[in-house]
Amino acid sequence: MNNLFYTIIVLICLSACSSNSREKLEFDEQQMLDYTVEKVIASLSSMSCGDSLPRNIYSGQTDWNLVGINDWCSGFWPGILWYAYEESKNPDILASAQGFTEPLGGVLEVPVDNHDLGFMLYSSYGNGFRLTGNPAYQDVILTSADSLATLYNSKVGTILSWPSMREKMNWPHNTIIDNMINLELLFWASKNGGSQHLYDIAVKHAETCMTTLIRPDYSTYHVAVFDTIDGHFIKGVTHQGYADNSMWARGQSWGIYGYTMAYRETGDERFLDLATKLADRFLERLPEDGIPYWDFDDPKIPDAPKDASAACVAASALLELSSFMDNENLKAGYKNAAIKMLSILSTDAYLANGKNQAFLMHSTGHYPNGSEIDASIIYADYYYIEALTRLKKINAGKRLH
Ligand code: GLY
Q1: 85 neighbors 93 (Cβ within 8 angstroms)
Q2: Cα–Cα distance measured from residue 139 to residue 142, given in angstroms and rounded to the nearest whole number
Q3: β-bridge mates for residue 225, sequence order
Q4: Which residues, 6+ apart, have CB-to-CB distance to 47 below 8 Å?
Q5: Is 115's C-beta closer than 6 angstroms to any atom of ligand 1?
Q6: Do the beta carbons of residue 185 and residue 126 sit within 8 Å?
Q7: Dist. CA 283 → ligand 1 center (Å)
Q8: I need a surface site. Which of 145, 264, 317, 363 has the fewest CB within 10 A?
Q9: What is the pLDDT of residues 134-188, one digit of tens each?
């Protein structure tokens, strides 16, 4: 599409998200950061640091259901604690952040069998290193990046996301849109003592996914399946979405987040351009109340569950995306779209308040599997506190990274 025409369409779309894209929306991120810190302190009062970590709370429950360190969600609770420590400077939260992060090093004692190392070890050790500079944390991150890199297939040009699905689903080499997030671990490692190879494969992975996981209308497949012999793209399918051709909400938000981050790490304008197109597709399809259903194409909508986690991931990504916009209307438009989502998430309709230990309710994990439907899920809380932290930095005129 002609670039000028595209810019005009984007401006129209963003101004539809808020009546005036430069308008200053009212939202008190400090009040919500205070809420997250209070909830963290309350949860910690009934927890012991160690290798059992929060993952979800189902309707009717009050306390976190815990998982072990090898669960893909293990890094989010330590990550939340690091953000809560960054906000509060509370030494007890610091001790808990360390106490929940350090057992995760055990993840590296078993051979890598999925792409999730970034979610697990960058959310935990990565944030921990960012805030403490502890060299032992750097060692863990560098080792985990080398471990993740062993899943890279140079014929295909991507990391293998799910080795177990090669046989189970007959997906010889498979790469999921979620995997974009884990490239951050590789980029960071390559710039902090790791090899150039880590950077190169992260770039190649992002490039390959641009032409396979992304559809011509800028919605995303969940899974791209490739041939291992000659590396060609066989098909796009779903695992956690409604249908192979549907737009799974969290997948689309992983895409926005991943390509925004890939632009930050590389300065490659192709990634920035794609991030804006994925964001625009997401924003133009949002329902009236601004929080996506779990899959934009579920025919049961409006009687389908929401996915607050997709809104949290997207809000955090849109805030970073806005920071890269030169055009002031686009900058304000993406920021306002994020604030609008955060505002809605911060109402009684989504806040857990005293109902359970989480920050938020109404996320959907794996609908086709019947698991974590309309639940509180730890990664919704992680990206919510990250988005609030980003918004506070942007409003204070600070750099995000
Ligand atoms: N990475 C898996 C998910 O988003 O559910």
Answers
A1: yes
A2: 5
A3: 174, 235
A4: 64, 96
A5: no
A6: yes
A7: 20
A8: 264
A9: 999 999 999 999 999 999 999 999 999 999 999 999 999 999 999 999 999 999 9
